[in-house]
Amino acid sequence: QVQLVESGGGLVQPGGSLRLSCAASGSIFGLRRMGWYRQAPGKQRGLVATFTSGGNTNYADSLKGRFTISGDSGKNTVYLQMNSLKPEDTAVYYCNLALWSSGTWRDYWGQGTQVTVSS
Fold first, then answer.
1. What is the mean pLDDT of residues 17-36?
2. Chain segment 48-58, per-residue pLDDT in tens
3. CA-based, 20 to 30 A from 69: which of 1, 7, 9, 80?
4. How many Å apart are CA 100 and CA 102, to the nearest integer?
């Protein structure tokens, strides 16, 4: 079993910053990818950013420069620093852990943390 615990969401004014944290525990080994996805009301869940245990990072193009992902694949932790937040960043943010096994990624998800950007 794999569990993901997120923290750090909340209400912030436009232009403000938030830092999300996620820690994974359980049967975790081999090549892995950790990251963040988000889902706004009425929209599909989409990529925010990911990084792999091999050191590769990937960002949604629209978020480059404002959001920074970091973490420690050895400790199975991932963070998301969000700066210059805009109302359109309002969404539920989900931590994701993907494990590579038998030629495919197996996904695990956190419970989600709400981020609201509003004045």
1. 93
2. 999 888 878 99
3. 1
4. 7
